[in-house]
Automatic annotation (TrEMBL):
<dbReference type="Pfam" id="PF00036">
    <property type="entry name" value="EF-hand_1"/>
</dbReference>
<dbReference type="Pfam" id="PF00149">
    <property type="entry name" value="Metallophos"/>
</dbReference>
<keyword id="KW-0378">Hydrolase</keyword>
<dbReference type="InterPro" id="IPR004843">
    <property type="entry name" value="Calcineurin-like_PHP"/>
</dbReference>
<dbReference type="InterPro" id="IPR006186">
    <property type="entry name" value="Ser/Thr-sp_prot-phosphatase"/>
</dbReference>
<dbReference type="GO" id="GO:0005509">
    <property type="term" value="F:calcium ion binding"/>
</dbReference>
<comment type="similarity">
    <text>Belongs to the PPP phosphatase family.</text>
</comment>
<dbReference type="InterPro" id="IPR011992">
    <property type="entry name" value="EF-hand-dom_pair"/>
</dbReference>
<dbReference type="InterPro" id="IPR002048">
    <property type="entry name" value="EF_hand_dom"/>
</dbReference>
<dbReference type="InterPro" id="IPR018247">
    <property type="entry name" value="EF_Hand_1_Ca_BS"/>
</dbReference>
<dbReference type="GO" id="GO:0005737">
    <property type="term" value="C:cytoplasm"/>
</dbReference>
<dbReference type="GO" id="GO:0004722">
    <property type="term" value="F:protein serine/threonine phosphatase activity"/>
</dbReference>
<dbReference type="InterPro" id="IPR050341">
    <property type="entry name" value="PP1_catalytic_subunit"/>
</dbReference>
<protein>
    <recommendedName>
        <fullName>Serine/threonine-protein phosphatase</fullName>
        <ecNumber>3.1.3.16</ecNumber>
    </recommendedName>
</protein>
<dbReference type="GO" id="GO:0005634">
    <property type="term" value="C:nucleus"/>
</dbReference>
<keyword id="KW-0106">Calcium</keyword>
<dbReference type="InterPro" id="IPR029052">
    <property type="entry name" value="Metallo-depent_PP-like"/>
</dbReference>
């Protein structure tokens, strides 16, 4: 696999020292956490590369609370080894105790404009909920909470870091290169046969993704997997597999263990083979109960089938699953007790390991594998310079740049000058726009473009149009933004013209392949955009409040999203909804609107909803916005402005 397009040279991009703030109100037991759509919830922090810690504290509290607050205590200093020729990274964690009367007076920013971060007060039970949902940047935040409150301290194991006194925590070279308490999984890591320099390259990538944390949450692990080009549908299972201590976070050696499991050409023997066998069991043990139930065992059989590159019917697969139980976990087990294992019953870890060790159940060595070696990734990092420092905006996969892979929800945009929608394969139109609006090229014009979907179907040049837009997105990722429309759906294109156009232009085999690849990019596209935190933009219309109480719920829509009609009613509303035709409304429609918070069935389209002005006003008020810009309906004048009466205070 070619990593060269994912990894580019970038000078002096390394993590630097930070100051973090644990800001709490003891009276109501609440903590101030920061949140960014691309990250989990985390302690507010600020870089202090060329500043003192005191200045860092002042700048941090001013940024996150609009007030300059002095710290009460220094509760932790994290010293993190990078490599022998670089200084340790420092994260100084200060405690700020806020009286309840002062907290009430604080006016937190809705959104920090420079970073798009949000800040909010959260109670202990809410933070526990975030931890359960794996939405904290790292479970190590529990350590800081226990240090601040004096509760029973949550310990960080010695194999992760050393303590000096009561404050200083150190991650040393020994913790990174060779942990002192060797686990069975470390024998698996040793099979990679990596040099010290190779390990350091990988370790720097780990730091770049998760620092200032020393452990990696699921979301940060997903970012690392994207950089290594591992399939997105494997990430959650890989994270569960590597999290053997159930911390809901991974340390570097655990990430290395996952890399060893995924290495495509490795031959495992002895303890390493058993370690991988146990980890494969964890990969498929979705409910983490130490047993494979019928569904989990079936998923294992499907994965083994896929390695043979053969497709089977559901009935054939059921027979294979039954055969797997009967031959390997029924007749092959020695004891009379184990002979009672029936089809559909659960498979324990010890039985799984035993049967694989006896070669009674074969094929697991071929599953859960990457498409390329980790050594290829290391070589690409080395060739790019900076020993593996990856460029955040240097990915040139079409899907990546068009949609910022992994985020199909709301795209936040600033200072958009022009929006357009429903180009529908009209390549001459976009050429006309080019001559008028960016004759010298988009990169040399001050405007930014936000396009609201329906790029294909109807017109004769859907392929050329989408190729042009994708190329512009690659060339100018911060100047052009693409939102998905209802024609960026396979079933719609089959009934219209885009699939036929691809086959006509490229032939049956290549045409369908190109059509599928373009739609794979569509599957990752954002469903909406918010301009300057005030203007909501989408293809269809605002979603129903029972599907989307707040605009941030759009970020929870699955990604990739191949079948919105089956996978997300919220996405379907954004793609298909229309404003109701005000005027002579039928009485039945008026009643339906009144009974459903301003929404009714969209009978004109036969799907989704229509919404009235009251529903629009409520949506804008709840989300603190002022306007809605949409496409989806042709306007003879090119644009139509509808004035909606604002509710009186």
């Amino acid at each position: 696999m070619d990593f060269s397009k994912k990894i580019l040279p970038e000078a002096n991009v390394v993590p630097c020292d930070v100051v973090s703030a644990l800001i709490r109100c003891p009276t109501d037991k609440s903590y101030l956490l920061a949140y960014h759509p691309n990250n989990d919830y985390y302690l507010p922090y600020i870089q202090v590369k060329d500043r003192s810690w005191a200045e860092g504290c002042r700048n941090l509290t001013t940024k996150y609370t609009r007030e300059e607050i002095l710290p009460n205590n220094l509760i932790r200093i994290n010293r993190i080894w990078q490599c022998d020729n670089l200084p340790y990274l420092l994260n100084a964690v200060f405690e700020f105790i806020i009286p309840i009367e002062y907290k009430i007076k604080l006016k937190l920013p809705d959104v920090i404009s420079s970073t798009k971060e949000k800040v909010m007060w959260m109670k202990v039970n809410e933070i526990q909920r975030l931890l359960q949902l794996e939405m904290l940047s790292s479970s190590e935040l529990k350590v800081y909470f226990s240090l601040a409150t004096g509760d029973q301290e949550v310990k960080i194991p010695k194999e992760i870091a050393d303590f000096t006194g009561n404050i200083v925590l150190e991650v040393t070279k020994g913790h990174v290169m060779a942990p002192r308490s060797l686990h069975m999984n470390d024998s698996l890591v040793q099979t990679l046969a990596l040099s010290e320099n190779d390990v350091i390259i990988l370790y720097k990538e780990f730091l770049k993704v998760c620092f200032p944390n020393i452990m990696m949450s699921l979301k940060f692990f997903r970012k690392l997997c994207h950089k290594m080009m591992w399939p997105d549908n494997m990430v959650t299972s890989l994270f569960r597999m590597g999290d053997v201590w159930e911390r809901k976070a991974l340390v570097f050696r655990e990430v290395m263990t996952i890399m060893a499991v995924m290495e495509p050409e490795l031959v495992y023997t002895g303890i390493a083979a058993e370690a991988r066998c146990r980890l494969i069991f964890r990969y498929f043990d979705a409910d983490k109960d130490g047993k494979l139930n019928a569904t989990e065992f079936k998923n294992l059989m499907i994965a083994m089938r896929e390695t043979k590159r053969s497709m089977v019917s559901a009935s054939t697969l059921e027979k294979e699953v039954e055969k797997g139980y009967q031959l390997n976990f029924h007749l092959s087990l020695f004891s009379c007790r184990e002979l009672s294992l029936a089809v559909g019953s659960e498979v324990a870890l010890k039985d799984f390991v035993l049967q694989i060790g006896l070669l009674k159940f074969r094929g697991t060595s071929l599953i859960v594998k990457a498409n390329s070696s980790i050594k290829d990734f290391i070589k690409a990092c080395t060739a790019a310079g900076n020993q593996g420092i990856l460029r955040d905006l240097g990915e040139y996969s079409l899907a990546w740049h068009t949609v910022k892979v992994g985020k199909a929800g709301v795209k936040e945009v600033t200072a958009i000058i022009r929006t357009d929608g429903d180009l529908h394969g009209n390549f001459p139109d976009i050429c006309c726009f080019e001559r008028i609006f960016w004759g010298l090229g988009i990169h040399l014009t001050p405007i930014r473009m936000l396009l609201l979907g329906d790029y294909v179907d109807r017109g004769s040049y859907g392929v050329e149009l989408i190729a042009y837009l994708f190329a512009q997105k690659v060339r100018n990722p911060k100047k052009i933004f693409l939102v998905r429309g209802n024609h960026e759906l396979r079933e719609i294109q089959k009934n219209f013209t885009f699939q036929t156009e691809c086959v006509r232009k490229f032939g049956e085999e290549q045409g369908l392949a190109i059509w599928q690849e373009i739609n794979r990019a569509f599957d990752y596209m954002p469903l909406a955009a918010v301009v300057d935190d005030k203007i909501f933009c989408c293809h269809g219309g605002i979603p129903a409040p029972w599907l989307c109480p707040h605009v941030e719920f759009i970020n929870k829509v699955p990604c990739p999203l191949a079948n919105p009609d089956e996978e997300s009613s919220l996405a379907w509303d954004l793609l298909w909804n229309d404003p109701v035709r005000e005027g002579n409304l039928e009485e039945s429609l008026l009643e339906e609107l009144q009974e459903n918070e301003g929404f009714a069935v969209n009978r004109r389209r036969g799907t989704a909803h229509v919404f009235d002005s009251g529903a629009l006003n409520r949506f804008l008020a709840v989300n603190r916005m002022t306007y809605l810009i949409r496409a989806h309906e042709v306007q003879q004048a090119g644009v139509q402005l509808i004035k909606v009466e604002q509710p009186k205070n």
